[in-house]
Amino acid sequence: MTGFRLPAGGVINRDAPLSFTFDGKPYQGFQGDTLASALLASGVTLFGRSFKYHRPRGLLAAGSEEPNALTEIGTGANRDPNSRATMVALTDGLVAASQNRFPTLKSDLLSINSRLAPLFAAGFYYKTFMWPAAAWEKIYEPMIRRAAGLGRNAELPDPAHYEKTTAFCDVLIIGAGTAGIAAAQAAEGRVIICDEGFAPPPALPDHVLYMPSTTVFGVYDGGTYGALTLTKRGQTLTRIIAKRSILATGAIERPLLFGNNDLPGVMLAGAVEKYATHYAAAPGKNGILFLYNDNAASLITTPGIALAAIIDVRPKSSATVHELAASAGVPVFAGSVITEAEGTLAVKAAKILRADGSITTLACDFIAMSGGWNPALHLTTHLDGKPVWDDARATFLPGTLPPGMAVVGAAAGAGLNENIQPYWGEKATGKAFVDFQNDVTARDVKLSKQEGFVAVEHLKRYTTLGMATDQGKTANINGMALMAAETGKSIAATGTTKFRPPYTPVAIGALAGPHKGKHFKPTRYTPTHDWAAAQGAVFIETGLWLRAQYFPRAGEDWFAATMREAKTVRAAVGICDVTTLGKIDIQGPDAARFLELVYTNSWQNLAVGRVRYGLMLREDGFVMDDGTCARLGDTHFVMTTTTANAGKVFQHLEFCHQVLFPELDVSFISVTDQWAQIAVAGPHSRATLAKLVDAPFDIGNTAFPYMAAASLTICGGTRARLFRISFSGELAYEVAVPAAYGGALAAALMEAGSEFGIAPYGTEALGVLRVEKGHPAGPELNGQTTAHDIGLAKLLSKKKYFIGRALAARPALTDPARPSLVGLKPVNQTDILKAGSHLLTQGAEPIAANDQGWITSALRSCTLGHSIALAMLTGGPARLGEIIRVYDPVRNGDMLAEVVAPVFYDPQGARLHA
Questions:
Q1: Helix or strand or coil: residue 745?
Q2: Residue 629 belongs to what H/E stretch?
Q3: What does the pLDDT read at residue 853?
Q4: d(CA 56, CA 73)
Q5: Strands 732-738, 718-723: parallel, antiparallel or unpaired by DSSP?
Q6: Which domains does the chain possess?
Q7: Can the peptide bond before residue 552 be classed as cis, meaning omega within 30 degrees of 0?
Q8: In 385-456, which ranges are E strands?
Q9: Based on the number of CB atoms within 10 Å of its own CB, is 857 exposed (0-12), middle (13-18) or buried (19 or more)?
Q10: Model confidence at 1, in pLDDT bands (50, 70, 90)?
Q11: Across the chain, how many H-helices and E-strands are there?
Q12: Hey, is 182 helix, strand or coil?
């Protein structure tokens, strides 16, 4: 063990000890520690294994740029892989484990990959797995799958709690360092400051909202920022809308290039200083500081940090370094470099190439290195801003900024890289790592150039430089500099790769928020659900709803129950819950004008107390939806939509009103959930319903004819709406009551109709009844059909404008040869027509060129006693009486059918007008 806890200092609370385990071994830290600082203070320097070579890796950094210390946190379903130990707040009872090793961290069998490094050089994937081709499936793919990935998924449902929210502010400040706090204190209006850390909040004005443990991971259009907050319960994704933003993210220190610079104990100088000053943890007792700028010089006199030597690339070092070194009694090796670190599982010594050319080996238990600092400017580039290289400071600075963004402090380059003399590892020996997480070495960059991959984006993909979870935060500049040296170009000319959101990894669960499982797709029950369940109903999901599919009696399967229910409607009376149809309440002086614009047929002339069938087109002229709309008052309408399109139609109305016709005085709201609606259908429906309608309302054929509507009361004062409409083709009504009364209404209807043999019917029987009547529904209104296709061209008014009118008139959409709605009867009545079957002319070969259409809906008719179908057939209406071939290769179907009109039952409509 080399690390240790300093006796004093730091912001940790030594009065609040916390116990935790790492790889099954118990440890102790304090409140305010991270997992990384607590382990470091306990003498742990080996944190994980590298991705490709499985080399031992320890801490490199102290923040979100950490590429090495990726750990698993938690157990079982709570196991979270790839958690940066530097960003995990220590909690009592925390269970952590190393990953990417087998069988143990100290004895990893796959570390043999390091010895086989020549086989795994840059681009080895592209070269190795191309030949022989037959080996891919049996050898290469299984091997890659076993080796690929970092960490393990829990493979259990995620119990973490995710939330999504939106926040608005005048000023968003990203970063809570010195510059960020100063900006927050000076900013006016509503201010939000986001801090990756989890330390106690600083003193801030009341108008400032401080969000700890929050990373702003992306910048998007319109002043929108994505922020992820780690909470005790889980994670919260906040969509922040800001008028202005101030980037105060500071800077990220660069590693230096030398052999074995990835050994545990080789750390960034700034990280060593932070662990000592913030967490009172030191990585060792005998260190070496390797630098070529003055920013890291403060480590020389940091309490608790003992240095054996300072290695400075600069020929004479600097006055600052010499003064601080003299005060600490530390020798300075000017004009020198570390060429290689020595050790196996931890650094033991450093080889130093001195200015006179001699080699000196110095014993040490940690190396603090500083290759200068890079502004953490990633968020400035998310809207395609380009960083600008600054030779004086040897780093990229922010270029074009997102609208409304300003950059302050080190993120803008302030105070960075003073007296710097860049060194890109030219004298390194052995493996000098550029990208620690993806095991990309300086030799890989050279090989990339030799192979012709010189553009930085090509370099990135060929070597995987900067493609790991840390997105190259500590690697990219060194990689660009090496390529610049190889090509003889400047770093400015070489450029840098694009930074893309997210700045740090974001869990998919956080993007989804609480919308998973039933929160993603909650089960919506109809108001009659409990009543239907008591009747023995079998339920099925239809869109967002759970509806009664059929009501089996003893000895009945689904088919027998369906046929019985449908026949009951045809012969007596049945009830069906149709609450799931979309219901939109539309009111206002311009309500009728609005309907004229969104429907294809006329509405201003619809009388109060009447219902009309309506057809709605998309802007491209194709059918969007159909339904009915009732006029309950001069300025009051109630629209119904199909179940599947209820949300889509409401969204369409919102768009039409807000964008296309904002001058219209009309308001609307979805009332689907507010009203239970039950269809009462069959020859005895009037007699059944008459028992419930409160006097003196008359529902007789004269007083309340087909397509009538009214508000009334039923069952002794319950307010209701009654519509004389029919989906079954029978005498029928739909009665709506407040949703809470849905079950009671169903029970009352069953009692009232008992003398007539009433029965409930489900969606299966509903489908039989509608296909017998040739009503288009979801399978026919699939977004690819026009009014002409489904036989409703007569509803396209020629006297007014409506949405979709112009494009619906395109010749291609009115061509009589288009597939159009027809009915089909099998020539052999024992044959069963099936939806999805292809239609061909008799004798035609079953190839795509001969395809004449397809069956949209098919079932057995309860009235005709054989299979029937609705279909889209090329030139359909002109082909009535033709015998065609119905071909279904998937289900081995091949039969003949007669083309008939789509209305199989009561084509004159006498029964629904009874």
A1: helix
A2: strand 623-633
A3: 97
A4: 20
A5: antiparallel
A6: 4-126 (3.10.20.440), 160-252+372-418 (3.50.50.60), 537-580+675-770 (3.30.1360.120), 582-670 (3.30.70.1400), 815-914 (2.40.30.110)
A7: no
A8: 388-390, 395-397, 405-407, 433-435, 440-441
A9: buried
A10: very low
A11: 22, 50
A12: helix
The two tokens of residue 518 are: 């039933």
Cβ 699 vs Cβ 733: under 8 Å: yes
CB 247 within 8 A of CB 408: yes
Residues pairing with 97 in the sheet: 72
pLDDT digits (tens, 9 = 90+) for 901-912: 999 999 999 999
CA distance 435 to 464: 9
Cα–Cα distance, 171 to 473 (Å, whole number): 26
Per-residue pLDDT, 138: 74
The three-state secondary structure class of 598 is helix
Question: Rounded to an integer, what distance in angstroms lies between the CA atom of residue 277 and that of residue 688?
Answer: 84
Give the chain's end-to-end CA distance (angstroms, integer). 94
* Separation in Å, CA 602 to CA 539, 575, 584: 38, 31, 18
Gap between the Cα atoms of 452 and 126, Å rounded:
14
Taking residue 327's Cβ as centre, other Cβ atoms within 10 Å add up to 10
Kindly calculate the radius of gyration of the chain based on its CA atoms and give it in whole angstroms: 37
331 token code pair = 């020798």
Mean per-residue pLDDT over the chain, rounded: 94
Is the pLDDT at 392 greater than 70? The verdict is: yes
Q: Is the dihedral of CA 785, 787, 792, 793 positive or negative?
A: negative
pLDDT of residue 130: 61
- Write the secondary structure of 648-710 as one string of H (helix), E (strand) and C (coil): HHHHHHHHHHHHHCCCCCCEEEECCCCEEEEEEECCCHHHHHHCCECCCCCCCCCCCCCCEEE
Quote the CA–CA distance of 855 and 888 in Å, as a whole number: 10
For residue 220, the SS3 value is strand
Nearest to 337 by CA among 297, 370, 290: 290
Q: Directed axis angle between helix 456-463 and helix 476-487, to 10°?
A: 110
Integer Cα distance of 365 and 285 in angstroms: 7
Q: What is the pLDDT of residues 842-891, one digit of tens each?
A: 999 999 999 999 999 999 999 999 999 999 999 999 999 999 999 999 99
- Location of structure tokens 């008014």: 797
- Per the CB < 8 A criterion, the answer to whether 408 and 40 are in contact is no
**Token pair of 195 as six digits:** 């801090």
Q: Which CA distances in Å does 567 have to 560, 573, 574, 766, 861?
A: 11, 9, 9, 11, 10
Tell me how far apart the alpha carbons of residues 34 and 136 are, in angstroms, rounded to a whole number: 43
Cβ burial of 608 (10 Å; 0-12, 13-18, 19+) is: middle
Q: Give the Cα separation of 629 and 29 in Å (integer).
A: 69
pLDDT attached to residue 136: 67
DSSP 809-866: TSHHHH-TTSEEEEEEEESSTTS---TT-EEEETT--SSGGG--EEEEEEEE-TTTSS
Residues near 910 by Cβ (< 8 Å), separated by ≥ 6?
none
Beta bridge partners of 548: 539
CA angle 201-207-212, nearest 5°? 30
Q: Give the single-character DSSP code of 797.
A: -
Q: Residue 770 is inside which H or E element, if any?
A: helix 763-772
**Side chain identity at residue 884, one-letter code:** I
Mark residue 472 as left, alpha or beta (left: phi above 0; alpha: psi -120 to 50; beta: remaining): left
Matching residue, tokens 């005085």:
665
Q: What is the DSSP letter of 138?
A: I
Helix axes 763-772, 558-571, angle to 10 degrees: 60
Q: Which two three-digit tokens encode residue 906?
A: 């009561």
List, in sequence order, every beta strand (DSSP E) within 99-213: 161-174, 191-194, 208-211
pLDDT digits (tens, 9 = 90+) for 792-815: 999 999 999 999 999 999 999 999
Distance CA 518, CA 583 (A): 24
